[in-house]
Amino acid sequence: MHKVHIILKTVTPLFLGGANPRGAPELRPTPFRGVLRFWLRALLGGVLGDDVKALRDAEAKVFGSTERASSIVIRLQQPDQLPRVTFSMIAERRGKRYNKPGIAYLFFSARGTRRERERSAIKEGVSFELTMRTRLGSDADESFRQACAALWLMTRLGGVGSRVRRGAGALQVMRVQGDLPTELPQLPVQANSPEELRQELADGLQRVRVLVGSASASISQFPAFDVLHPSVCRIGVIQRTFENGWKEALEAVGSALQVFRQRRPPDYDQVKGTLQGRSLTQPIKRAAFGLPIVFYFSSLRASATLQGSKHDRRASPLWIRPVKLANGRYAVICLWFKSAFLPKEDSQVERLKLETQGRVILSDQPSDALLQTFLFGADPVKHSSLKDKGLSLLEVTGW
Asked: In the 3-class helix/strand/coil scheme, how is the chain assigned residue by residue?
């Protein structure tokens, strides 16, 4: 049996509710197991290819399925008290305004509404212990290696809980006790600069991919799920450090994204036109960042909702991840999974539907050109890409 104890610390607030998502946040093993399964699937997809059945079988060997018990047991030991913080406190609400509008934009679904109260999160800087061990079995060695690889990815590229793709729920390893696979990259962050972090990520990604299998299968241009492979996943580190904490880092990126997307032509005029009786002439480009999108036009006192004709949600392919460097400063990783926009059924590409005032208007899926512009290009329309805002990305290559 393999066993390891890991001290984790929250880098950003962790929105992790229980039975009531808007109730008191709590630490539970189930969400952690689910997140580790996600990263293992993404990692194995870059090695085995995007054969869904083969991947389900491979991940079931590690984290179980309805027919098979998990080979990995996860336990959490939390502090007697979990310091909490509300959405309004995080975004520094003052009346109807926010002192941190960029963070409010990134965490917007945690805000209070007329029907639901605002969400609370476990505060940043909280430490807790995660124990991971294997059950006795013939494949314990392999399962432990793969689970450790998924743990490295979760604590370097992702996180846990709601709004994790927009920077919430980031976790970092502070201390490790136990025997980890010798091939595994170091779990704690060693880098002191964006350049060092880029190299640390490239080296680590190389090693975790070898850890689960060196032979890389051919990858579809747009795989059915998020795959960690250089041909369908781009990773960059913002070429700037932030001395005043994670809030400064996320506020900079969130403000840029907010300006980039809000009232963006031609989407804004097109959707507004549909409320005035006109038809759509081209896809809504903003959909590349995820679905659904709710448009509201105060001048018309009307709204419209864009979603898939069969699937109402499409998780954003863009992940924003703050990192606390070894010297105490902060950096930001941006990760772009270039997977299929929506699942195909019988080889049919799903169309999008815009619902407004009792009408349903169908349109084609957009390209990912807008994401490309925000992350790596210059924005000729609103001058609010990362590059325009002095937040250029150092791309992680060679992995």
From this structure: CCEEEEEEEECCCEECCCCCCCCCCCCCHHHHHHHHHHHHHHHHHHHHCCCHHHHHHHHHHHHCCCCCCCCEEEEEECCCCCCEEEHHHHHCEECCEECCHHHHHHCHHHCCCCCCCCCEEECCCCEEEEEEEECCCCCHHHHHHHHHHHHHHHHHCCCCCECHHHCCCCEEEEEEEECCCCCCCCCCCCCCCHHHHHHHHHHHHHHHHHHHCCCCCCCCCCCCCCCCCCCCEEEEEECCCECCCHHHHHHHHHHHHHHHHCCCCCHHHHHHHHHCCCCCCCCCHHHHHCECEEEEECCCCEEEEEEECCCCCECCCEEEEEEECCCCCEEEEEEEECCCCCCCECCECCCEEEEECCEEEEECCCCCHHHHHHHHCCCCCCCCCCCCCCCCEEECCCC
Tens of pLDDT along the chain (399 residues)? Answer: 899 999 999 999 999 987 787 888 989 999 999 999 999 999 999 988 877 888 888 899 999 888 888 899 999 998 888 999 999 999 999 998 999 999 999 999 999 988 899 999 999 999 999 999 998 765 789 999 999 999 999 999 999 999 999 999 999 999 999 989 999 999 999 999 999 999 999 999 999 999 988 666 678 888 989 999 999 999 999 999 999 999 999 999 999 999 999 999 999 999 999 999 998 999 999 999 999 999 999 999 999 999 999 999 999 999 999 999 999 999 999 999 999 999 887 778 899 999 988 899 999 999 999 999 999 999 999 999 999 999 999 999 999
Domains of the chain in sequence order: 3-199 (3.30.70.1900), 246-395 (no CATH)
